[in-house]
Input
Amino acid sequence: MFNTRSKSRRAPQGFQPPQRGALPQGRAAAAHGWSSNSQLHPFTRKDENSRLFHYEQKVKQAFAEIEPTLRMLSAAQHEADFVGRAQALVKSELGLELPESLLVDSWIKPLDIGRLYAWCVFETFRQMSDEFFDTRPLADADDFEFQRFLEQCGFHTLDVSPCADGRLAHVIRYVLRLPYKAVRRKSYAGAMFDVEDSLQKWIETEMLRHREGSPNQAAVPTRYLKAAVYHHSSSKPESEGCAAHGSDTQKAAAAALAKLQAFRQSVENGFCCGASIDLLLIGMDTDNDVIRLHLPDANGEMDVDRYVDAIDLFNATRNSSGLDAEAAVKRYLEDMSLACGVSQPTAGMMRLSARLLCGNLSQIDYVRQYHGGCYSDIGHQERFIGMGIGFEEVQLRNLTYFAYLQTVEEGAKDMDVGIKIFTGLNARRGLPIPVVIRNDYHGQVPGARDRAEARCHQLDNALRNRFRDFADRGLLHTLLMVRDCQNDGMAEVVGSSLDLQQQEAH
Ligand SMILES: [Zn+2]
Output
């Protein structure tokens, strides 16, 4: 369970309280002239916004407090009764109990703040992960309703590949307001998803429809829908866009579209009888979560220069009645298609697009309500790298840089981008780069857990080999976890570079 921390915590005597307010609220709000009392869009789901914010704030604050707390610890390491007072401080500020072995020698040698830092990040993540699977703070009561809706729109699966950038990690649950369990998410640097991996997933999905009628019968004429999400930064387009595409928005959009088309082509070439899929290209402004939807025409074709901007929709509908939001958005989309002189997408694609845009209107207000209309951390502020397969529990912005991969060699580009980002965030300041290595497995497959654990260790070794310079200097730490996703269990720790018992035994 996540520790519930008292609101009126007080640091033990002798310690200076840490700098608070790491969450970016007031400053950005004032800069944009927007206060939380300003009028919300009539389609905004106010209660959902409040629930999502409460969760985001709690988790991000827990990570934000690690560094100021360790600064206090560092300053006090030669004081009398340091170990007892340090434990009291860390318990009170972070809700954690440090391993004694990280503290006991502080009278004779300097505290290893890097190891303490990595331990606190890993433990905070572990607690967040346990809480996520235990209490389902972001669960959506409408998982089944969404699946039914998707099928009514003519699709049986929604598979989304955003960029691996941590500023897009909340794209499913927050930015698009979709139930995370009903959507497949797999992130790649630059949204450059693996076509073979997607093809494999498509085959698996179609096989399940034939064999089990899940999620619907193969005879039902629905299709697999693949979406890619690229991104840009409206306030700093030259420097805070997509690192994998040199911050070039046009290039990022064109590359994502080309990947989508290659996936469709591979399905059409590889399977007869008119097999095909549908595609959707989405752009996202990481400053304020406003999306651009590249609506496909009647033939399913999209254009990088033709899109609906959610902020235009927001302004055009801000005086509407809040009664039938999706119908109003659909009318807006129909008008836009007419104005552009392109053929309209299928009725189902139109309905789904209206729903995605509607969800985004709530998120636009969310950023206005709680972040002053523009995040103050418009650049990278991730806390750790998540590497391997899994991470359903990470649905928050700027917390994790993802590297979905089976082997380090195969995901080398994604890892290089991640290490580059964290060199700037951590290593340059002497703080280690925390990497959580994860492998989810299907519990009904004999031996799957052991193989998942073995893969974690292989990834760990390969990571250390590739970034030996960081590892040798104590600037790379890892936590190894596996999870039975079939049985929806909690993630379990199977190793760590901070494995204190093991190191003490050597
Ligand atoms: Zn990117």
